[in-house]
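Sequence in, structure out. First:
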Amino acid sequence: MSTPEITATERTALDRILLDALDPLAPAMRARATGYAADRRWAADPAEVAPAVLGTWNVVDQEVERPTATAARTAASYGAGHERLGAARGLTRPGARRKWPDAVDGPAAAPPTGSSLELFGGTAELFADAASGGWRWSARGADGTRSREAGSPTATKEEAAAHAGAFLKQHSVTDAPTDAPTDAPPAADRSDRPAAG
């Protein structure tokens, strides 16, 4: 199996997403590294600034490796071996074994346990629902909003993580209203607020 190619339109959309992610991260890292005030964080010779941007891309690369490793472990849990994992990532079988040594040949499968997820400045807990055999989640967004009852259990841990991730994205600091109470319901549930105008 070869690594699938993306179209020019998909590449453009991905570039936009990556640059949107880099925009707040690079200036924040540069400001912390230099001690400059936020409005002067780029006040330097371009020969100093450009490596700072490169360093930020390195952080992004490292952060992308976390969900990539999770995806490799998930694929292995469904029966994919190192050969298939490597093919999906453009690696040889030995390369995949070096990259994810415990994904396939890890310890014997244990009963499912809960785990935590940190995204967009918030945290979520995923936990197995013994009664249904499915998975549930609870979360607290970066804006302080807590999830309500997680509703029906999902079939897989990955599906619960996807729901929790969507909640955390919706309640990231950049999307948070500054006057929201800590335990406020999601914005979609605030239909009782009068319209601005």
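Second:
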Amino acid sequence: MEVKLSTKNMLTKIEYESLWNTFFQGRKKNMTMPAYSDYKKREEKKKEYIGGFKKAQKTIKYILLGECAPDTGNFIYVDGLNSYITAPLKAVGYNTKKKFDRINAFMQSGFLLIDLYPFAINYKDMRTELTENIKFQKIIHQHLIKEITSYGKLVNDDWDFCFVAPESTSAGVLKYLITHQQGALMKRKNISHKNDLLSGHEDFVDKSGKIYHNYVDIKGKMMPKIARLASRRGSTGPSADLIKRVLF
């Protein structure tokens, strides 16, 4: 079954259900499709957040590409919690231990978090297969590029982006972009970055003998070989210092 997208930013109920039935139905035992109404509420909250840029006469400078909203129901545009908002704020100098309006600070700093996947589920054990599914990735990226483009002048002319999804998703999606859509996401800007470590890298081998191809040891710290990745190996969230390394 072919999944076609509408011209709207938000998936319609039919598109949402079609995407699930085509790529997720029956994948895991007892895994059910999250309610469309929950997805719709998240998108409406994000729309309210984006409206804040226009009211404040600010532009979107930094787009953070996450995996999905957490299956716990928390969402940064509602509660302003978790590392997906605290890490970027730390990267621009905020002390997140103090009380302040984090959502407003996030907007004032020019950040926008967009989830790659619409379903709030646990993607563990599915990440590699999904990133290697060209049909699925094509649909996801068509929607992503359409959404970013729709914001028009709200997006700064010199905007930048990084991946804050788990490492396996980020690396896989980045590979897809480089292979199939070089430049499309960034309006013909390069996917690569001035801090990319394209030579002289060494694969990292952990104690169990597992090899990590996307990391390099820099002064005792494991850093992504591709600078677009702002989440460390094994981490469930983004790193403030990696966001700073990529974007600033």
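Remark: The longest strand covers residues 155-163.
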